[in-house]
Amino acid sequence: MKLSPNLFKIERSAAVKMTKPFIKPIITPEEAAGKVREGTTVMLGGFNYGGVPYTVIDALHDQGTGNIRVICVDASHCNPKVPEPVGVARLIVNRQVSSMVISHMGLNAVAQEMFAKGEIDIELNPMGTLVERIRTGGAGLGGFLTPTGVDTAYEKNRQTVELDGKKFILERPLRADIAFIRAYKADEAGNLIYYGTGRNFNPVMATAAEIVIAEVDEVVPIGEIDPNNVVTPGIFIDALVIKGGNAYAART
Amino acid sequence: MLPELNENEARERIAGRIAADLEDGALVNLGIGIPQLIPNFMPDGVNIFLQTENGTIYAGPAKDPNDLRIIDAGGAPISVLPGGSFVSSDASFGILRGGHIDATVLGALQVDEDGSLANWTIPNVRTPGMGGAMDIVAGAKKVYVATRHFEKNGTSKLLKKCTLPLTGHGVVDVIVTEYCLIRNINGRMVLEEIADDVDTNELRSKTPMEMEISPDLKTMTC
């Protein structure tokens, strides 16, 4: 066996051959959105207003790509109180989304109407089930057993397993082609920290897609984020986008 | 005739009664609507700790109404109290499903004799989705339902069997409406408290849910 002399020496240059680059390129929102084609499965981080990659979603909206398959927690806001669509609701109202796996759409009247008319395919998952499906997808597992939804209509058409006298629903993993996530700060190596309730689905989505792009408030030099505080290690990240002027991006 | 309460009186009475039932030091998850009023009605000297399903442990009142970096599950700004923390959604639902929450309080479209709850869809009419409710009722140590007793058209929300798709089967421990408190005691729905001016027989006759009357039936105070 030949030991590499440079095993622990990491050059800060493109010469370091890694699946994902060690130093993450900072790309424009348009470049990030450009990776989405018709039929692409996209995970979008966020929960309600928090932790949403608003700037990339805006670019995806302007790009106009249709037939996008979306995995995210909720359909965001588009209702009498918040009539101007927010976040993923912009893509839904713009008819760019053909199918979604989500948990809640109570604040998006348009999504509910499209669903009722059969204009969009929606699979509703309990929220804890949805996040665990994504976690499982990123962790190399074949599925998991949950008590959530047992003996309800949700159980229909799903496999159940009886284990030690208790009934569980067998849930399958979820993965995507691309995950657009949102974090507070990144260092140049893509290590991420989050702020407040903006963490939500972002750390699990970072593990469960082929390409992972993080929208952040700022990128700081390596060393400024204490490794003890890193929530999402840079190994999951392909590229970074700096958040733009979206009014909700500014408030989150 | 049952006394008629306006919406606010009814909501505040329900929230107040549940506030008085929660134990000092309990870690509690509150649903949207009536449950969110509960912190305003906690008796002196009794403190509860709030967990929000979007990842706050020890949630407190908002400091800046424009700051959306710390919000509750409904999107309203909140804060985190000293000693609190933030977690991701997989951890938050591990907390909820894993039995680490002492109590949850949820609204209902329907609730029934089996302690089953329906609150996420009216097929072909409105489907907001289940959100976190299915996981929360599957894992919380104690599930309170906070609901008006009747729909606006007078139909009881307390039924023999729910007709809407369930959120959870046999999960409800306590039901509080503006007229009464019902406890699920080993699968039997026991009417323990009834509001002032409410005739027990009349309430039972207008409520399809079969209720046993507690031998120490009390007046509901809040």
CATH superfamily of chain A: Glutaconate Coenzyme A-transferase
Anisotropy-based shape of chain B: globular
- Architecture of chain B, according to CATH? 3-Layer(aba) Sandwich
CATH fold call of chain B: Glutaconate Coenzyme A-transferase
Query: How helical, in percent, are the residues of chain B?
Result: 10-25%
As for the CATH topology of chain A, it is Glutaconate Coenzyme A-transferase
Q: Please state the average pLDDT score of chain A.
A: 93
Q: Class by helix and strand content of chain A?
A: alpha/beta
Assembly status: heterodimer
User: What's the end-to-end separation of chain A, in Å?
Assistant: 51 Å
Series of secondary-structure elements of chain A, N-terminal to C-terminal: HEHEHEHEHEEEEEEHEEEH
Q: Report on the biggest sheet of chain B.
A: 10 strands, mixed
Give the uncertain stretches of chain A in residue-range form.
Answer: 9-17
What is the helix content of chain A? 10-25%
Topology pattern of chain B, helix = H, strand = E: HEEEEHEEEHEEEEEHE
Give structural attributes:
heterodimer, A: about 250 residues, alpha/beta, Glutaconate Coenzyme A-transferase, seven-stranded parallel β-sheet, three-stranded antiparallel β-sheet, about 20% helix, B: about 220 residues, ten-stranded mixed β-sheet, three-stranded mixed β-sheet
Characterise the protein shown here.
The complex is a heterodimer of chains A (252) and B (222). Chain A contains seven helices and 13 strands. Chain A is an alpha/beta fold. Chain B has four helices and 13 strands. In chain B, the strands form two sheets. A ten-stranded mixed sheet of chain B has the order 4-3-2-1-5-8-10-11-12-13, sandwiched between helices. In chain B, helix 2 crosses helix 3.
